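Submission sheet (multi-component)
Chains listed below:
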Amino acid sequence: METHDIVEDRIRSGHMACPGCGVVIAMRLVLRALGPKTLAVIIPSCSSIIAATHPHSSLRVPAFHGTFETAAPTAAGLSYAMKIRGKEDIAVVAFAGDGGTFDIGLQSLSGTADRNEDYIYVCLDNEAYMNTGIQASSATPQSAWTITTPGGRTSRKKNIMEIMAAHRIPYAATASIGYPQDLMDKVRKARGMKGTKFIHVLTPCATGWRMAENLTATAAMLAVETKIFPLYEIMGGKKYTITYEPIGLPVEEYLKSQGRYRHLSPAEIERIQAEADEEWEGLFQRATGCRPLPVNERGVI
Amino acid sequence: MRDLLSGNYAIAEAVRMAKAQLIPAYPITPQTPIYERLSEMESNGVLPGIMVRVESEHSAMAMCVSASLAGVRVFTATSSQGIALMHEMLHFASGNRVPVVMGCVNRVLAAPWSFGSDQTDTLSQRDTGWMQFYCEDNQEAFDTVIQAYRISEATLLPSMVIIDAFFNSHFIEPMDLPDQDQIDLFLPPPFLPERFDLDNPAFVSNVVTAGTQFAPFRETAFHDMENAKEVIGEVDREYREQFGRGYGMVEAVRTGDARLILVTSGSMTSTARVAIDALRAKGLSVGLLKIKAFRPFPWKEVREALQNAPKAVVIDRNISLGKEGIFCQELKSAIANSKARPQVYGYIAGLDGVDVSPEVIEGICLEALNKEAPDDLPVWVRG
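Outcome: structure written.
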């Protein structure tokens, strides 16, 4: 790969994202890491708007706008076609939102993962149906406000990574726009592997999360540093590696940055803290085989 | 080569010989033997293409659409609930102008649950922008799959090749399988537009502008579907020249002097041929019009065939609640502006694969011949 290809952006300026959009940052990083020999599948979501209307394209790679629940089989179909036509050096990436992944597209995603079809699935998770205007999905965290959950969502966020790990796909990773190098490293790693690769990117949405447009990257970093959204990868559904050790800030630091959590009581914040700690402990154990030390013994805040 | 094959196996043979390159498949009765047979061929190393055992018909069509856009010849098959589940993707396929060929075996749509033939599953996909070819027998099903690839790849419109549950799908008939080199001559490898060009990247199928772009796309597709009739005719003529068999969009049998023309589609047509001969033997001047192409609808051919007959009888193995049989509606609209047109008698018969015998068909024709005028609503015939 040529050096200039590694750094060249494949999203043009003038794209149609909202100010402060986390999704477009993720798409830019993913496409930068994938390089020019890439086909993108986009489904109805914020990314389909970002990529522009006919006959324009804000992408510098060929892309196809499929249907909402078919990001996975659409990408797999392209991947088979590349193989049949002797163009196996072309990577196929599917971009889907959290609704298209956790909800309506889960069945077909499971199908392609089961068959281990050769493509990279990138879930751009802004934790609600943001393109239709902030309706809750099963990726919306418990207690978070959306227009369809005015009092806060009652169910906990679905653990999509465990679902993907259960398919024993070669590679699954979480990534954050707050940690671009980690994100791009994971994308490059995925590109070098055969089979279904799944990358779950937290992409804060200033509009839907009710926060200032300049806080997108900060919110993404706080999600990681509070262990709400840890950065890790799973090889073959089994081998867990934490790729970044978070500081372990109190979850309140993350929650208070967003208007969607403004209504939370101290008890609810405490519950979210307890759940984040419990999830982290489980992840740490899977990654190291040991329980993590209690926070105060490790001398971190 | 002569062989004995079911309709499902005939379709599978055609898909193999057409060298379909990608076949996403999902089981549903009564189409399943197509999937099983193709799997067996793959396992024996005689299938040129790749099979993918997808998790739903919806995903099968999603995969067909993207692979076809990338220049690959694809096939899938389904029935009934599977066609209904695919509905969204059927519109999406035709809108993206992909030459997908799909085998459809007509089966009742639930509820109530059942498995026999009823054309309502495919007919209710009338407005999805797919060409639809209703086949009378297993030989025609084979020949039509081969033809459909030529037609679809020339017009960039998808095709359904349709047979009846069990009467075609499972009944074994003697048929002629052409040699592979003859099929290769007729159907060369696909040469499709390059939609994904790394050097000139485009965003395919993105959002259009309502005022200036949507309607022109639809109008172009409308005219292309109408013009597909010429392609269908040309491909059929070539096929007849090379293989000695052709079908036309319609087939008129003994209609020239007929006082009554019976109109049928699908496997019922074979039985109707027998009934017509029996009625002729009794001195009644009765003819038969078989409608093979439902989309594009051969309105000109239908008008011509019916122009001199005082009466037409349409037997539908399907029903549109709140109106009547669907072929009957289509036929009425096709002749609405004809100068001379017959009275049209609508009958509903054979739903859920109930046998429609030559005697039943003769009875229907005699009843219509003796009536002064047609009923407003269709007449229901029980087996």
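Remark: Chain A has one domain: 3-298.
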